[in-house]
Amino acid sequence: MWAAPVPVVTWPTAQYNPNPLPDDLILPLPCGGAMAFRSATAPAQPELAPKVAGRDFSAVGGPFRDGQGKPRLLVGKYEVNRLQVAAVGAFSNGSACPRRNFRTDGSRPPRSVGRRP
């Protein structure tokens, strides 16, 4: 049976979770990075309320369940930063891990993600 290596987080905690809480979910990223998530309850049924023209109040159901079987969503705790985008990008296109400059890139949002039209 084949198994993937367990990713190891080597980035300083302050770069991906500056205000840690006991129930944060930390998911490792390529290149030693990580992202912090919070779990939120997702209603199973939309509330019975009139729809306002031009707005959609659809229900959101999460793929995860808590101990009582209620649907849960994982929500990013912080805005994605440049290093996180670069680490995932390097992994997806097979290039080397980006040079880490936590002082300038670790807390800044990416300039753009994806292609511009």
UniProtKB/TrEMBL annotation:
Q: Name the domain of life.
A: Bacteria
Annotated region Disordered: the residues are 93-117
Protein name (database record): Sulfatase-modifying factor enzyme domain-containing protein
Q: What is the lineage of its organism?
A: Bacteria, Pseudomonadati, Pseudomonadota, Gammaproteobacteria, Chromatiales
